[in-house]
Amino acid sequence: MQPVSAGFPSPAEDYIEGKLDLNRYLVKHPAATFFVRVVGDSMIDAGIHPKDMLIVDRAILPTSGKIVIAVVNGELTVKRLRQVKEKLWLMPDNSNYQPLQISAEMDFLIWGVVTTVIHSV
Amino acid sequence: MTKLFALVDCNNFYASCERVFNPKLEDRPVIVLSNNDGCVVSKCDRAKQLGIKTGVPLFKIKPLVQEHEIAVFSSNYALYGDLSQRLMETLTNFASEMEVYSIDEAFLDLSGCISSFDRDAQKAVDSPLSILPEWIKRDLPIPIVRGLETEDLSEFCAEVAFSYGEKIRTTVKQWTGIPVSIGIASAIRLA
Questions:
Q1: Where is pLDDT greater, at B117 or B171?
Q2: d(CA B36, CA B4)
Q3: Are residue B63 and residue B112 in the same domain, yes or no?
Q4: Which residues in chain A touch residue B86, judged by CB atoms under 8 angstroms apart?
Q5: Do B123 and B59 reside in the same domain of the chain?
Q6: More confident residue, B81 or B143
Q7: Strands B5-10 and B180-185
Protein backbone atom coordinates (compact mmCIF):
# COMPACT_ATOMS: atom_id res chain seq x y z
CA MET A 1 0.00 0.00 0.00
CA GLN A 2 1.52 3.29 -0.99
CA PRO A 3 1.24 6.30 1.31
CA VAL A 4 -0.87 9.03 -0.29
CA SER A 5 0.25 12.54 0.48
CA ALA A 6 -1.98 14.39 -1.95
CA GLY A 7 -3.56 13.78 -5.32
CA PHE A 8 -4.83 10.44 -6.59
CA PRO A 9 -3.52 6.96 -5.80
CA SER A 10 -2.25 5.02 -8.80
CA PRO A 11 -5.00 2.89 -10.36
CA ALA A 12 -2.35 0.22 -10.87
CA GLU A 13 -1.55 0.06 -7.17
CA ASP A 14 -3.62 -3.03 -6.41
CA TYR A 15 -2.34 -4.93 -9.44
CA ILE A 16 1.39 -4.50 -9.17
CA GLU A 17 3.16 -7.86 -9.14
CA GLY A 18 6.80 -8.40 -8.33
CA LYS A 19 9.22 -7.51 -11.06
CA LEU A 20 10.93 -10.41 -12.75
CA ASP A 21 14.13 -11.01 -10.82
CA LEU A 22 16.41 -12.98 -13.10
CA ASN A 23 18.48 -14.23 -10.18
CA ARG A 24 15.48 -15.86 -8.54
CA TYR A 25 14.13 -17.07 -11.86
CA LEU A 26 17.35 -18.68 -13.07
CA VAL A 27 19.25 -19.62 -9.92
CA LYS A 28 17.68 -22.34 -7.76
CA HIS A 29 20.66 -23.01 -5.47
CA PRO A 30 22.64 -19.77 -5.16
CA ALA A 31 25.36 -21.30 -2.97
CA ALA A 32 25.98 -24.03 -5.56
CA THR A 33 25.53 -22.00 -8.77
CA PHE A 34 28.41 -20.70 -10.84
CA PHE A 35 28.74 -18.88 -14.16
CA VAL A 36 31.05 -20.27 -16.82
CA ARG A 37 32.14 -18.75 -20.16
CA VAL A 38 32.09 -21.13 -23.13
CA VAL A 39 35.14 -21.77 -25.28
CA GLY A 40 34.83 -23.81 -28.46
CA ASP A 41 31.90 -25.02 -30.55
CA SER A 42 31.57 -28.68 -29.58
CA MET A 43 28.03 -28.07 -28.29
CA ILE A 44 26.82 -25.68 -30.98
CA ASP A 45 23.87 -27.85 -32.04
CA ALA A 46 22.56 -27.58 -28.48
CA GLY A 47 22.51 -23.81 -28.84
CA ILE A 48 25.76 -23.32 -26.92
CA HIS A 49 28.08 -20.96 -28.78
CA PRO A 50 31.59 -19.76 -28.01
CA LYS A 51 31.52 -16.85 -25.54
CA ASP A 52 28.06 -17.77 -24.25
CA MET A 53 27.60 -17.82 -20.49
CA LEU A 54 26.43 -21.01 -18.81
CA ILE A 55 24.61 -21.21 -15.49
CA VAL A 56 26.04 -24.28 -13.76
CA ASP A 57 24.38 -25.80 -10.70
CA ARG A 58 26.45 -28.20 -8.59
CA ALA A 59 23.47 -29.16 -6.44
CA ILE A 60 21.59 -30.89 -9.26
CA LEU A 61 22.02 -34.61 -9.72
CA PRO A 62 23.70 -35.31 -13.06
CA THR A 63 21.61 -37.80 -15.04
CA SER A 64 21.69 -39.13 -18.57
CA GLY A 65 20.62 -36.51 -21.10
CA LYS A 66 21.71 -33.51 -19.06
CA ILE A 67 24.37 -31.12 -20.27
CA VAL A 68 27.18 -31.08 -17.76
CA ILE A 69 30.55 -29.55 -17.04
CA ALA A 70 32.83 -32.55 -16.71
CA VAL A 71 36.46 -32.88 -15.70
CA VAL A 72 38.41 -35.34 -17.82
CA ASN A 73 42.07 -35.82 -16.93
CA GLY A 74 42.11 -32.43 -15.26
CA GLU A 75 40.45 -30.56 -18.15
CA LEU A 76 37.04 -28.91 -17.90
CA THR A 77 34.66 -29.61 -20.77
CA VAL A 78 30.97 -29.04 -21.49
CA LYS A 79 29.19 -32.06 -22.98
CA ARG A 80 25.95 -33.98 -22.79
CA LEU A 81 26.06 -36.89 -20.38
CA ARG A 82 24.69 -40.18 -21.71
CA GLN A 83 24.35 -43.50 -20.00
CA VAL A 84 23.80 -46.43 -22.32
CA LYS A 85 23.31 -49.61 -20.28
CA GLU A 86 26.40 -49.77 -18.07
CA LYS A 87 28.52 -47.39 -20.13
CA LEU A 88 28.93 -43.66 -19.63
CA TRP A 89 29.55 -41.27 -22.50
CA LEU A 90 30.28 -37.58 -22.96
CA MET A 91 28.53 -36.55 -26.18
CA PRO A 92 29.31 -33.43 -28.19
CA ASP A 93 26.47 -31.67 -29.99
CA ASN A 94 28.47 -31.07 -33.16
CA SER A 95 29.14 -33.70 -35.82
CA ASN A 96 32.74 -32.52 -36.13
CA TYR A 97 33.53 -33.91 -32.67
CA GLN A 98 33.79 -37.48 -31.38
CA PRO A 99 31.88 -38.88 -28.41
CA LEU A 100 34.06 -39.87 -25.50
CA GLN A 101 33.43 -43.07 -23.58
CA ILE A 102 34.32 -42.83 -19.89
CA SER A 103 36.33 -45.79 -18.69
CA ALA A 104 37.01 -46.83 -15.11
CA GLU A 105 40.71 -45.91 -15.43
CA MET A 106 39.99 -42.35 -16.53
CA ASP A 107 40.34 -39.44 -14.21
CA PHE A 108 36.73 -38.25 -14.46
CA LEU A 109 34.17 -36.34 -12.44
CA ILE A 110 31.12 -34.17 -13.01
CA TRP A 111 31.77 -30.59 -11.95
CA GLY A 112 28.16 -29.40 -12.29
CA VAL A 113 24.97 -29.46 -14.36
CA VAL A 114 24.24 -26.78 -16.95
CA THR A 115 20.76 -25.35 -16.44
CA THR A 116 20.73 -22.31 -18.72
CA VAL A 117 22.66 -20.83 -21.64
CA ILE A 118 22.86 -17.07 -21.88
CA HIS A 119 23.43 -16.07 -25.48
CA SER A 120 23.65 -12.47 -26.65
CA VAL A 121 22.34 -11.69 -30.10
CA MET B 1 15.75 -31.96 23.85
CA THR B 2 19.40 -32.96 23.74
CA LYS B 3 21.71 -30.09 22.92
CA LEU B 4 24.02 -30.75 20.01
CA PHE B 5 26.66 -28.57 18.39
CA ALA B 6 28.92 -28.93 15.40
CA LEU B 7 32.12 -27.15 14.50
CA VAL B 8 32.72 -27.09 10.75
CA ASP B 9 36.28 -26.33 9.69
CA CYS B 10 37.57 -26.26 6.10
CA ASN B 11 40.62 -28.30 5.27
CA ASN B 12 43.47 -26.06 4.06
CA PHE B 13 40.95 -23.44 3.02
CA TYR B 14 42.87 -21.10 0.68
CA ALA B 15 44.67 -23.99 -1.01
CA SER B 16 41.37 -25.86 -1.40
CA CYS B 17 39.75 -22.78 -2.94
CA GLU B 18 42.45 -22.62 -5.61
CA ARG B 19 41.58 -26.19 -6.62
CA VAL B 20 37.84 -25.66 -7.07
CA PHE B 21 38.09 -24.09 -10.52
CA ASN B 22 41.37 -25.69 -11.49
CA PRO B 23 40.98 -29.47 -11.28
CA LYS B 24 44.48 -30.03 -12.69
CA LEU B 25 45.80 -28.92 -9.31
CA GLU B 26 44.42 -32.07 -7.64
CA ASP B 27 47.62 -33.83 -8.77
CA ARG B 28 50.03 -31.16 -7.57
CA PRO B 29 50.97 -29.81 -4.14
CA VAL B 30 49.48 -26.33 -3.67
CA ILE B 31 50.58 -23.46 -1.45
CA VAL B 32 49.18 -19.96 -1.03
CA LEU B 33 51.29 -16.99 -0.02
CA SER B 34 50.64 -14.06 2.26
CA ASN B 35 50.30 -10.45 1.07
CA ASN B 36 53.34 -9.38 -0.95
CA ASP B 37 54.00 -13.09 -1.51
CA GLY B 38 56.11 -13.25 1.61
CA CYS B 39 55.41 -16.54 3.27
CA VAL B 40 53.15 -19.58 3.17
CA VAL B 41 49.70 -19.08 4.71
CA SER B 42 47.96 -22.17 3.38
CA LYS B 43 49.20 -25.54 2.18
CA CYS B 44 47.51 -28.69 0.94
CA ASP B 45 48.17 -32.06 2.57
CA ARG B 46 50.82 -33.02 0.04
CA ALA B 47 52.75 -29.82 0.70
CA LYS B 48 52.51 -30.55 4.45
CA GLN B 49 54.00 -33.98 3.85
CA LEU B 50 56.95 -32.32 2.11
CA GLY B 51 57.64 -30.52 5.37
CA ILE B 52 56.29 -27.08 4.43
CA LYS B 53 54.99 -25.27 7.49
CA THR B 54 52.71 -22.24 7.75
CA GLY B 55 54.74 -19.06 8.00
CA VAL B 56 57.82 -20.29 6.17
CA PRO B 57 59.15 -17.59 3.81
CA LEU B 58 58.95 -18.50 0.12
CA PHE B 59 62.64 -18.00 -0.56
CA LYS B 60 63.48 -20.72 1.98
CA ILE B 61 61.47 -23.36 0.12
CA LYS B 62 62.26 -22.37 -3.47
CA PRO B 63 64.30 -25.55 -4.16
CA LEU B 64 61.44 -27.69 -2.82
CA VAL B 65 58.95 -25.81 -5.01
CA GLN B 66 61.01 -26.50 -8.11
CA GLU B 67 61.77 -30.12 -7.27
CA HIS B 68 58.15 -31.11 -6.59
CA GLU B 69 56.47 -28.72 -9.05
CA ILE B 70 54.49 -27.11 -6.25
CA ALA B 71 51.79 -24.73 -7.50
CA VAL B 72 52.32 -21.37 -5.80
CA PHE B 73 49.56 -18.76 -5.57
CA SER B 74 49.30 -15.20 -4.34
CA SER B 75 46.36 -14.69 -1.99
CA ASN B 76 43.10 -14.17 -3.85
CA TYR B 77 40.73 -12.89 -1.19
CA ALA B 78 37.94 -12.22 -3.68
CA LEU B 79 37.90 -15.95 -4.42
CA TYR B 80 38.20 -17.04 -0.78
CA GLY B 81 35.52 -14.59 0.36
CA ASP B 82 33.08 -15.76 -2.30
CA LEU B 83 33.58 -19.46 -1.56
CA SER B 84 33.36 -18.75 2.17
CA GLN B 85 29.96 -17.10 1.66
CA ARG B 86 28.77 -20.08 -0.33
CA LEU B 87 30.02 -22.46 2.36
CA MET B 88 28.18 -20.57 5.11
CA GLU B 89 25.02 -20.36 3.03
CA THR B 90 25.14 -24.12 2.43
CA LEU B 91 25.57 -24.75 6.16
CA THR B 92 22.44 -22.78 7.04
CA ASN B 93 20.43 -25.70 5.63
CA PHE B 94 21.70 -27.93 8.42
CA ALA B 95 21.30 -25.92 11.60
CA SER B 96 18.67 -24.09 13.61
CA GLU B 97 21.30 -21.46 14.45
CA MET B 98 24.75 -20.74 13.19
CA GLU B 99 27.71 -18.62 14.19
CA VAL B 100 30.32 -17.80 11.57
CA TYR B 101 33.59 -17.94 13.46
CA SER B 102 36.11 -17.12 10.75
CA ILE B 103 36.47 -17.21 6.99
CA ASP B 104 36.46 -21.00 7.05
CA GLU B 105 34.89 -22.04 10.36
CA ALA B 106 31.40 -22.02 11.75
CA PHE B 107 29.56 -23.32 14.78
CA LEU B 108 26.20 -24.93 14.11
CA ASP B 109 23.47 -25.44 16.68
CA LEU B 110 21.96 -28.75 15.67
CA SER B 111 19.44 -28.77 18.51
CA GLY B 112 16.03 -29.52 17.12
CA CYS B 113 17.41 -30.50 13.71
CA ILE B 114 17.59 -34.15 14.50
CA SER B 115 14.58 -35.07 16.59
CA SER B 116 15.94 -38.60 16.94
CA PHE B 117 18.02 -37.28 19.84
CA ASP B 118 14.97 -36.79 22.02
CA ARG B 119 14.75 -39.20 24.99
CA ASP B 120 11.69 -40.78 23.49
CA ALA B 121 13.82 -42.11 20.65
CA GLN B 122 11.32 -44.65 19.40
CA LYS B 123 8.78 -41.95 18.66
CA ALA B 124 11.33 -39.50 17.24
CA VAL B 125 12.53 -41.88 14.54
CA ASP B 126 9.03 -42.07 13.16
CA SER B 127 8.29 -38.36 13.23
CA PRO B 128 9.31 -35.99 10.42
CA LEU B 129 12.35 -33.75 10.83
CA SER B 130 10.26 -30.71 10.12
CA ILE B 131 13.01 -28.11 10.21
CA LEU B 132 14.97 -29.65 7.35
CA PRO B 133 14.28 -29.13 3.63
CA GLU B 134 12.63 -32.02 1.77
CA TRP B 135 15.67 -33.22 -0.04
CA ILE B 136 17.62 -33.69 3.18
CA LYS B 137 14.80 -35.60 4.85
CA ARG B 138 14.65 -37.85 1.81
CA ASP B 139 18.35 -38.63 1.71
CA LEU B 140 19.30 -38.63 5.37
CA PRO B 141 20.21 -42.14 6.49
CA ILE B 142 18.43 -42.42 9.86
CA PRO B 143 19.10 -45.78 11.43
CA ILE B 144 15.88 -47.66 12.11
CA VAL B 145 15.61 -48.41 15.79
CA ARG B 146 13.04 -50.52 17.54
CA GLY B 147 12.96 -51.23 21.26
CA LEU B 148 16.02 -49.14 22.07
CA GLU B 149 17.49 -49.68 25.52
CA THR B 150 18.63 -46.63 27.49
CA GLU B 151 22.25 -47.75 27.67
CA ASP B 152 22.34 -47.91 23.88
CA LEU B 153 21.22 -44.29 23.52
CA SER B 154 24.68 -42.71 23.39
CA GLU B 155 25.84 -45.14 20.74
CA PHE B 156 22.70 -44.47 18.73
CA CYS B 157 23.22 -40.73 19.09
CA ALA B 158 26.82 -41.10 17.97
CA GLU B 159 25.71 -43.02 14.88
CA VAL B 160 23.09 -40.49 13.92
CA ALA B 161 25.49 -37.61 14.59
CA PHE B 162 28.06 -39.28 12.37
CA SER B 163 25.51 -39.75 9.56
CA TYR B 164 24.42 -36.16 9.86
CA GLY B 165 28.01 -34.92 9.84
CA GLU B 166 28.71 -37.01 6.76
CA LYS B 167 25.67 -35.52 5.06
CA ILE B 168 26.97 -32.02 5.78
CA ARG B 169 30.44 -32.90 4.50
CA THR B 170 29.27 -34.44 1.24
CA THR B 171 26.78 -31.66 0.56
CA VAL B 172 29.38 -28.92 1.16
CA LYS B 173 31.87 -30.73 -1.09
CA GLN B 174 29.29 -31.22 -3.80
CA TRP B 175 27.88 -27.69 -3.73
CA THR B 176 31.04 -25.63 -3.19
CA GLY B 177 33.96 -27.95 -3.92
CA ILE B 178 35.45 -27.33 -0.46
CA PRO B 179 36.42 -30.27 1.80
CA VAL B 180 35.52 -29.75 5.47
CA SER B 181 35.97 -31.53 8.77
CA ILE B 182 33.22 -31.62 11.38
CA GLY B 183 33.23 -32.20 15.11
CA ILE B 184 29.90 -32.84 16.85
CA ALA B 185 29.35 -32.80 20.60
CA SER B 186 26.86 -31.88 23.28
CA ALA B 187 28.75 -28.72 24.26
CA ILE B 188 30.40 -26.14 22.03
CA ARG B 189 33.81 -26.40 23.67
CA LEU B 190 33.81 -30.14 23.03
CA ALA B 191 32.93 -29.82 19.33
A1: B171
A2: 42
A3: no
A4: 30-32
A5: no
A6: B81
A7: antiparallel
User: How many angstroms separate the CA of residue B151 from the nearest CA in chain A?
Assistant: 39
Q: What is the predicted pLDDT for the residue at A11?
A: 77
> Measuring CA to CA, how many Å separate B135 from each of B51, B93, B129, B131, B171?
42, 11, 11, 12, 11
Mean pLDDT over residues B57-76, rounded? 96
Kindly tell me the number of DSSP H helices and DSSP E strands found in chain B: 7, 7
ipTM: 0.83
What's the CATH number where B25 sits?
3.40.1170.60
What is the assigned CATH class of domain A22-118? mainly beta
Q: Tell whether B186 and B108 lie within a shared domain.
A: yes
Task: Read off the pLDDT of residues B133-178 as tens digits, 9 standing for 90 and up.
Answer: 444 444 444 333 333 333 444 666 677 778 788 889 999 999 999 9
Q: Number of folded domains in chain B?
A: 2
- Contacting residues for A86 by C-beta, under 8 A, at least 6 apart: none
Active-site entry in B69, B97, B105, B159 = B105
* CATH code of the domain covering residue B112: 3.30.70.270
pLDDT band at A5 (very low <50, low <70, confident <90, very high): low
* Euclidean distance between CA atoms A56 and B112, whole angstroms: 33
Q: Are residues B117 and B69 in the same domain?
A: no
A32 contact residues in B (CB cutoff 8 A) = 86, 90, 174-176
Band of the pLDDT at A25, cuts 50, 70, 90? very high
- Residues B134, B70, single domain; the answer is no
Question: Quick check: A47 contacting B, CB < 8 Å?
Answer: no
